Amino acid sequence: RLCVAEAVRRAEAKGFVDITRKDSVNAGDKVYYNDNGKLLYLTVVGKKPLTEGANIVAAHTDCTRLDFKILPIFEKDGFAYGKTCMYSLSKLEKWTSTPLSMYGTVVRKDGSVIEIAEGASEDEPALFITDMSLHYSVEQGQRKQEEAYNHEQMNVFLGATPAEGDMANAVKENILQYLYEKYGMIEEDFISAEIEIVPAGRTRDIGLDSSALCGYGFDDRAAVYAQLHGILACQAPERTAIAIFADKEEIGFEGRSGSHSRVTDYFLRLLAEKSGCGGDG
């Protein structure tokens, strides 16, 4: 969602317009179609009609991550945690004892949408997943790599401070109180939420000579960055140029926001209709 939002912001600054707000499009027009904030098409209309084809490039915006489960917060032994599930494949040991951030979108009962960001900057508290120290993990170290860590135990540490008053699960209640005071959300709002856990920190130069880059999701986002700059620089092409920013690559492009959905068919039909080529076929 953040990647699509940033791409739209940059595109609009370069003159791209939401295609649903236009009655027609002509050669040289720059338009975009944003499907629910997770699947994006940036297009520069070509001189040749769409019936003669289009030049299409695609990249995916999603990366390996942890997702919060429905109603994820629980308390155990005086600590509050968030239950997660693994999105795509990953070496699970990389997720332990490292600073983590939490991003997400919540739809409340009244229909309002809340954007969540925790641990996004260095001056904010981060989250993390606990791991055993080396001298306590001899048995763990003797297992195969894929068996040493259990994805069902990738519970994110949320806090250890109890709420005031005599109540059960006081630490969990304190976390819920924090979320309500900051975002106005209650526990049931997690049912309609998409909340992701990712490594904290920005992409940085690496090497003593700053000759390379390193950061979470960099291999995926490098393609997105190159594609975005290409389509933003595109001017009056012969054939219509389309850049697709897809979701769900990490799990096989499934779902509405993945490239296996019919959204691409819908967008091409919409583009054909508005460019006067008709929407059939």
Observed structural traits:
281 residues; 6 helices; elongated; alpha+beta; five-stranded mixed beta sheet; six-stranded antiparallel beta sheet
Write the layout of secondary structure elements.
Elements: H1 2-13, E1 17-18, E2 30-35, E3 39-44, E4 54-60, E5 65-76, E6 79-87, E7 100-107, E8 113-118, H2 138-141, H3 145-148, E9 156-159, H4 170-183, E10 193-199, E11 204-206, E12 212-214, H5 218-233, E13 240-246, H6 263-274
Parallel strand pairs: 1-2, 4-13
Antiparallel strand pairs: 2-3, 3-13, 5-6, 5-10, 6-9, 7-8, 7-10, 11-12
What does this protein look like?
The chain contains 6 helices and 13 strands. The protein has 281 residues and is an alpha+beta fold. The strands form 3 sheets. Strands 8-7-10-5-6-9 form a 6-stranded antiparallel beta sheet, covered by helices on one side. A hairpin with a 2-residue loop joins strand 5 and strand 6 (79-87). The protein is elongated, with a radius of gyration of 23 Å. The protein starts with a helix and ends in a 7-residue tail after the last helix.
Radius of gyration using CA atoms only: 23 Å
Q: Sum up the overall morphology in one term.
A: elongated
User: Could you give the count of β-strands?
Assistant: 13
By secondary-structure content and strand pairing, the structural class works out as: alpha+beta
> Which sequence of strands runs across the widest sheet?
8-7-10-5-6-9
Mean pLDDT: 91
What low-confidence regions span 5 or more consecutive residues with pLDDT below 50? Answer: none
Secondary structure: helix percent: 10-25%
